[in-house]
Every structure is written in structure tokens, then in C-alpha cells.
Amino acid sequence: MIPYIFKRLLSLLISLCLASIVIFTVVEVAPGDPAAFMLGINAQDDTILALRKELGLDQGKFARYLAWVGGMLSGDFGLSYTYRSPIADMVGERLWVSLPLALYALGLSILIALPTGLYAAAQRGKRGDAMVMGATQLGIAIPNFWFAMILVVVFAIKLRWFSAGGFAGWDDGLFSGLKSLTLPAIALALPQAAILSRVMRSALIETLGEDYIRTARAKGLSKRATLWHHALRNALIPVLTIIGLQFSFLMAGAIIIEQVFFLPGLGRLVFQAITQRDLIVVESVVMLLVFAVIMVNFLVDLAYAAVDPRLRSEA
Amino acid sequence: MKLRGSFLIGLLLSAAIASTALLSFIWVPYDVTVLSIGEKLQGASQAHWLGTDHFGRDLLSMIMVGARTSLAVALVAVGIGIGLGVPLGLAASARQGGWLDELIMRSNDLIFAFPSLVIAILITALFGASAVNAIIAIGIFNIPVFARVTRGGALSLWQREFILAARVCGKSTGRIAIEHILPNLNNLLIVQGTIQFSLGILAEAGLSYVGLGAQPPTPSWGRMLADAQTMVSFAPHLALVPGSAIILSVIGLNLMGDGLRDVLDPKLREAAR
Amino acid sequence: MPIKTGRLLRISAAALALTSGAAAAAQSDLTVALQLEPPHLDPTSAAAGAIDSVLYSNVFEGLTRFASDGSIIPGLAKSWEISEDGTSYTFHLNAGVTFHDGTSMDAEDVKFSLDRARGEDSANAQKALFADITDVSVVDPLTVKVSLEAANGSFLFNMAWGDAVIVAPETIENIKTNPVGTGAFQFSNWVQGDRIELTRNADYWGTPAALESATFKFISDPTAAFAAMMAEDVDAFVNFPAPENLPQFEADPRFQVIVGSTEGETILSTNNKMPPLDNVKVRKAIAHAIDRQAIIDGAMFGVGTPIGTHFAPHHPDYLDLTANSAYDPDLAKQLLAEAGFENGFETTLKLPPPSYARRGGEIIAAQLRAVGIQTEISNLEWAQWLEQVFRGKDYGLTIVSHTEPMDIGIYARPDYYFQYDNPAFQTLMTDLRSQSDPATRSAMLQKAQTIISEDYVNGFLFELAVPTVANAKIRGLWENAPTQATDLTGVSWSN
With contacts defined as CB-CB under 8 Å, which chain B residues touch C294? Predict the structure, then answer.
């Protein structure tokens, strides 16, 4: 067990290291001077140079890389070029939007997908299954930003049930915050629910084809009981894997939806940082997202090893 | 019975989109580079089957030429994925557990860990928005997909009798890979290819939507959607037309992919996962 | 029973009276949406226009200021004297003015602000405004004397700019995140990425603002802007980004639409040093290939005024030279042939983010294509545009709106991004600076406009309009934008 954990840990650290190098290189190679951008059209060259010095842009690449990594390890992500305020604080604030949004969308997705996937598997080959499959095909094909447009026109502009965008904040209570995240969450959840529903369905169908299920049925267990007590539990394993993947995707993938609904989340932060050449924010946020994914993978690997003894000997 | 029906639908839709794109090379109802402001925002009519946009351009022509962009970007991106991913996957599977395998799989995991949409936006925003950069950005994330799928499919093949026989005869690993393993993976790659193709169309639409795909005056479905947004309340056809084009293409390709999977080899359902 | 009902009736009547009473009192807070969020809150250092849009006149004030009609009126200085030779200005400041932190505003603060702006380490984006100043001296707490190197007819005008507002040394350190000024509103909170909140300054030295609080929200996406306005998430949107939606707002009784003028000349900037654009015949051909009205209709949905030179049409000295560049594609082709390009040529068209540029660019590209000029369109973000076009001068054509007031002087700078180098024009501008007689100034300005029009330096398209969409009950919003600002000091709700 220990050598397995150790090996995984080593792999994690190497991945993080490589990721940081890749991110830094890609961002550094990019053309565009943040100082010039900040000062705008009429600024003179000496003002720009002064600002570059202030931002630390005049140091060599290697020095800046080390400073960045060192800072991250101690929790200091540096100051944003555009806002001149600590990135750690900015990211923390944005997380309060992106994290709940991702969880909300994931929750909706699971709420829709599991029952429909179950239904489709149970109704396999019949009308119900075909309907679900048709609906999921549509759900996967609809671009979520197009769906968002429709949601806004119908629910915000015509019906005025929701605001067209913006985040009400958590200060006024859980309900008002969630309300402003509802339309975005639905837009995000649609394609995810469609995918998850299909995964649920195929995982269940496969499990139902297994021998031990046949044994259970032969022993006299009802169809429903078999489904609930045996098939579902085993079918959930691939489903949980996909849910994990979807969560990581939702954290970063909401970038377009956050633009459309002008939500002050992580996605829009990174998008604005990219257009404003706020390199340091881009580097730090991307690094954070990658770290989250690698971390989740690591924990999932550990969980698998804890559960399945076969994997431990893979070390 | 039902499956074959949906496969047929998928095939027809995909063929329709592809032929529209090809047809656009020889003929379009109106030149999409000529603007006619006076005719803007008209609805469907005899002269313009799908109406005109805010610059007076014929929507049908825009869709036809836009099909070229979507299909080309998605196709080349898949090409990159296959071209680089398949050799990597084969190399990795040749010696399972070896250092090359570990290296390739770890690199794969690394690429998968990156938020693809953010990176695609980053690449196109930093290095210039264009169809070419969109292709590269999407293609990069296709490579690990094909590498993993190829490796998965090839692993079981390496243990087969005829491969061992070939080895005994003295054939090099490389030649075995190309002459024996690869042909047996064709079905797998075709199926995965159609999936990645439809994902590519969605990805291209997303990038064009934020302005980072093909640039004007080349029409692109995603950009048409973006342009249409502010006018949705008085000219909904501007958004419905390109939106439907995207949806129909993706559904068509997905249905075709599913159908192919069932037709070519039912066992592939597991290998493709 | 009857007693209970009676009690109930009385209570509900009282409650009704309370609520209707509350409704009768006019609303006192305002949510205004703007397109761009300021990167920080110091208008005097590395300033972006967005900073002035929020803080100018609301939080910060200068010696002089812009009135809504564009004229220069007294600000913190209630009066001034100018010496005979025009090199010395003595400002008399208003008494009893305090900064938002309670400290008093006096001549020392004025000296501090001006010296800081013109100093060597100054990061002021409009340093040129202060370049003439040789000395700033404190005569007494309410009197400041500013000495100039030479007479400058625009000095009072310069001091009204957002980059010349008065700041305090006590609060200068955190000015970027906690701006402390003298205005009718004080800064209260900034939720980055979302909004900035201001509250009324109860100790304001002048007429207090009618609003108790104001919130600026930042929405750059045109669709989100439309949606936010329609859903009444915001009360007003200044410089609404989607002119195509204006008819819908006009038709809706809930809203009012105000379309005013700005100082923004939208031009097709041409790189005068890049062949073949260095040939005046080619530039003239481009001018005649362009149909201004089609651009205004197609890109701005009819909102905007055509211009024939780099000057605001609402200005009394404006000369209508649009005939010099009337739409005539046949003439354009002829001129190209005369210049040796009967098969046309290729060049780049680099476009920054605003929709006037993106849409206008597509239209112009099509119009140029019709006469044989092929343009390669690049849609750039501001950062890239600044890098490639503005600093690098690596472009053929671009479209941008120059929003600074009275900026025809940029044509006298040979190293400015369109690289126009005409010594006659440069001399004219130098003469203009020291000229204070209004009639002579008018004549000189008109001559300047004629020179750049006949030299076809750039394609002069239209004057940007500023559409404001607001709740029909709001009063006092500025119609025009003589400077970048959203002056809320005179805004109130009618009922």
C-alpha cells in the first residue's frame, strides 16, 4: 500500500511541476505588454518603463518563474497587474461564485440524469428508452451558450422570473444568491445531464448483463430488487467517475456562461485576465484549476486502491 | 430495428451537411462577401429562403459557407488527434508498463488535467484568432483521447497468437504495429473519430462564439450566433438558423457514430470507454 | 367580533398608509451600468477612460470642470486671473471645501496635485497637459499661482480634464483602491468584476447631490446589456453598446432613450508611412470607396453623424468637408489606376473590440473589396491593438474612435500611430497654441481641418453618438459626453 501511495504522490508532484512549467512558458511567450495596456493610448515610453519596473516585468524569465512558484507554495499568488490587489483574495472571492455554480449545475445534472438513465435502462428497447435517448441526443448537441440565450429571452426578459444576469451575492441570503445562479446552472447542466444520463443507462445495462445479476434473478429476486440492491451499486462506479470529471469541467468550463450572464466567477476572471494581458492572474488561476484536477485524480486513485486490492499490486 | 433507423437519420444528416459544405465550393445563392445594408434583417422569402442578416447577407449562403469552416476545423483537429495520438498510443501499448508507456500515459493525464476551454481561449487569444489556431487548440486535446483509445484497443491485440507468431518470425515491433495492430483498430478509430468530430464542431462553435475562430469575412456558425444575440427579440431567425445547423450536425454525427459502433462491432462499446 | 375586525381594519389601513407613503417619496438610489470597469480608481495615474467614467465630478473635482454642454466652468477654483502675457494664472479657491476623510482642501493640495502630475516619476497618462507649467506656488491657503512657460489658450480647458483633478497627500497612498476626493459623492465599496458603490457626501461644499447612493455596474456584453436593461436589473445604461435595440426601448413606455454627441471622431486610421498607403492618391481612392451612410446604418443602426475631417460636428468651428470624400467607387477605381494599382492591392485591417470597429470594419472591407482593395481583417483585443497598431505601427488600416476633446493636434505628431508628417500643419498647431484671439483661433482650426481633409490622412467616418437608455422617471442625465464622465451630481428620480 505504502509504495503505491508513494508512487502516486511522486507522480502528482512531477505532474504539478511540469504543469507549472508549461503554463508559465505558454503565457510568457505570448505577445502583449501588460504595462502598455494598463497605461493606454497616450502614455509615454518612460511612464511605461516605470510601470514595468514596478510590476517586476523587467526581471529575467527564470527569476520570475521561481518567484511565482515560490510564492504559490507559500500561499502568496502575487498581485494582479490590472487591479494591483492580491490574487489569492480575488480568487477566493470568485470561488464563492464558481464553486456553488458548479455544484448547483452538477446537482441539477445528477437530479435529471440518474432517474432518466435508470428509466431508460429499465425500459430498454421500448418506447421510453427511445424517448430518453432522443432527448439526450438533443441535449448533447445544443451548445450551452445558445441554450443560455434562449433561457434569458424566455425567463428573464419575457417572463421576468429571474434577472438576466449578475450575481446578487450571498449577503442577502442563500435564496437570492441561488436565484441569480439558477439560469446559468440550468444552461450548464443541460449537456452534462444528457451525457450523464447516457452513462448511467449504459453502465446499468452492462451491469444488468453480468452473471451475478442472472444469479440473483435465478434465486428469485424481483426485477426491481435486483436493480436496486445489486445493479445500481455497481453501475454507480463509472457514473461517479464521470461525475468527478464533470465537476472539474464545470469549474473551468463555465467560462462562456459566466460571460453571458456576467457572473463574477473564476471563468470570467480568467477570460478578462487573458484579454487584459494580466498574465500573472492567468498563470495562477490555470495552475489552480490544474492542481484541483490532479488532486482529485490522486484522491480517486487512492480511493480505488483502498477499495480494490487488485490495484495495489500494480505498484 | 430502432437502432438502424437512427443510424439512417444520422447518416442522412451528416451527408446533408457535408454535401452542403462541398456544394458551397461550386455554388452559393449569394456572394457572402458582398454586403447589402439596404436589405438587412429580412425574413424568409422567395429571394432569400432563410432570410437575411444585419448586413443584408443571405442566411442560406452564410450557412453553406459556414459549414465549410465548421467541418474543416473539426476534421483537421481530428486529423491531428489521430496523426499524433495513434502512434503514441501504439508505442505505449507495445511495452505495457514500460517507461515509454508510463511517460505517454502521464503526459496524457497532464493534458487532460488542463481545462480545455480555457486553454483553447488562451491559445487563440494570445497567438491570434484564426481558424488555424482554433484547429491547433482543439487538436491538442484530441491527441490524448486517441492515444488512450488506441492503447486500450491495442493492448489486448498484442497478446494475440498471430502477433506472437510475427515476433517469433523476427518482425520488428514497429512493423508489427503498422502492419497488424493498426488495421485491426480501424473500426475503433472510425467510431472515436466521429465522436471527436462532433465534439470538434461544438468546440469550434464555442471558440467562434467568443470571437476566437475563423475571422471575418469568412462566415462561421458560432460567430453568426454571437452576432445574432442582440437582435434575438426582433429577428429570432438570425439565431435559430445557425443554432439549428450546429444542433443538426452534431446530432447527425453522433447518431452516425452510435450506429457505426453497433454495426462494426458490438464489443467496441467497451473498448471505446 | 366587530372589535377585532375593527382593529384589523385599522392596522391594515395604517400599514397601507405606510407603504403608500414610502412609495410616494422619490427613489434615492440609482444603479447605472457602464461597459468598461476601471482597472483601478486613480484618475491621475496610469488612467484609463473608464476611471473617469465613474469618478469624474462625482468623487473627484479639478480647478475647472466640464459642464454638460461642453463649456468650461469653475470647479474647485471659483475664479481666476490671467496675466497680460498669458503665462501666469492665479486661482481663487472655494472656501470650506473638505476631502471625504474630513481634511480640508486648500492651496497646498492643489500644489501637491499639479506637482505630482508633472513630476519626473509621474505616471499621469496625460502628462502633456502639465508640460507647460514651470511653477506652482501657494500664495495663501485659498490662492494658487501657476506659471507657464508660454501662453497656452487651452490651459483652463486642460485643467478640467479628469487627469488634472485635485487629490490629497494624506490619502494618496491608497488612492488606487480607496479614492478620496472632494466631490458630491464619496467612494464606499468596490466589488471587483461587478460594481462600484458611491454614497452621498453630506459635507459637500456645493449643492448636495439629490441621490443618496449610486452603484455603477459593469456590463460589456451587448446582449447582457440589453437583457439587464429589459429586466430592469439596472436603472440606466450610459453608452449602451447595442444601438440595434434602441427602437425597442423607445417603444417601451418604461424607458427613455437619450442620444447625444461625444467628442469621439471615429476614423479609419491609415498608416501614412506604409506603402501603398503613403500615396495620397491611394488614400483619396479609399476615401471615395467608402459609403459613410452605409457604415452608420449598418454598424450603428443609424446612430451617428458623418464627419469629413477630425473635428466634432457640434462644435461651432466645424467645417463640413464630407464632399471631399463623397461615395464614388468609380472615381476610386480611376484614382487607383492612376496611382498604378488598377488591379488593386492587399493590406491589413486591424480592429479593436468595440462594435463600431468590428461591424464598421466588415462593412468597409466589403466596400474596399468592391474597388479591388483586399483587406485582411484581424479582430484584436485592446492589449494586442495597443501593441501592434498603436505602438508597433504594424498595420495598414484600423478603425478607432478618438474620444479626447479638441484633439486635432494629434495630427501634428509625426510619430503618432498614423505617422502623418506635414511641417505646414505642425507649424499651424504651434501657432494655434499661443493664439488667444477667438476669431483667429477659429480661422486656424478651420484651416487645420481643411489640410487634413485634403491630404486624406485618414478615412473620416462619423462622430460617435452616446446612446443612454434609462428608466423613464430619471432626470438630469447628461445628453452629451464632452469628456469621459458619468456626472450624477444633478441626477434625480421624478415621481
Answer: 35, 37
- Which three-class secondary structure state does DSSP give residue A243? helix
Q: Do B37 and C245 touch (CB under 8 A)?
A: no
Establish how many alpha carbons lie within 13 A of residue B236's alpha carbon, considering only the half-sphere containing its beta carbon.
6
Angle at C196 between CA C191 and CA C198, to 5 degrees: 130
C436-474 confidence digits (pLDDT tens): 788 888 999 999 999 999 999 999 999 999 999 999 999
State residue A310's pLDDT score: 61
Beta bridge partners of C255: C471
Q: Which of C67, B126, C447 is nearest to A270 (CA)?
A: B126
How many angstroms separate the first and last alpha carbons of chain B? 25
H-state helical runs in B95-236 = 99-113, 116-127, 131-158, 161-168, 173-176, 182-209, 221-228
Is the Cβ of A66 closer than 8 Å to some Cβ of chain C? no
Lookup: cell for A175 = 435564496
| C-alpha distances in Å from residue B29, one per residue of A55, A160, B24, B51 | 55, 41, 9, 12
The verdict on B105 touching A (C-beta cutoff 8 Å) is no
Percent of chain A scoring above 90 in pLDDT: 8
Provide the β-strand partners of residue C216: C32, C196
- List, in order, residues 6 or more apart from A267 with CB less than 8 Å away: A98, A252, A253, A254, A255, A256, A257, A258, A259, B118
CA distance A173 to chain B (A): 31
Q: What is the DSSP letter of B72?
A: H
- CA distances for A58 relative to A46, A51, A70, B36, angstroms: 14, 10, 18, 50
Chain B neighbors of A259, CB-CB under 8 A:
210
Range picked from A193-207, C17-31, C290-304 for highest mean pLDDT: C290-304
CA distance A140 to chain C (A): 24
The distance of Cα B244 from the centroid of its chain, to the nearest Å, equals: 17
For residues B53 and B35, what is the distance between their CA atoms, to the nearest angstrom?
A: 10
Retrieve residue B13's grid coordinates: 444528416
Nearest to C230 by CA among C240, C220, C239: C240
Contact A27 B126 (CB under 8 A): yes
Q: By the CB < 8 Å criterion, does A135 face chain B?
A: no
Task: Judge whether A261 and A163 are in contact, CB under 8 Å.
Answer: no
Q: Residue B3 corresponds to which cell in the numbers above?
A: 437502432
Mutate to test the interface with B, among A12, A146, A279 (most CBs of B within 10 A): A146
**Cell 422617471 found at:** C473
Q: 3-class SS at A145?
A: helix
- Indicate whether C13 pLDDT > 50: no
B90 close to B181: Cβ distance less than 8 angstroms: yes
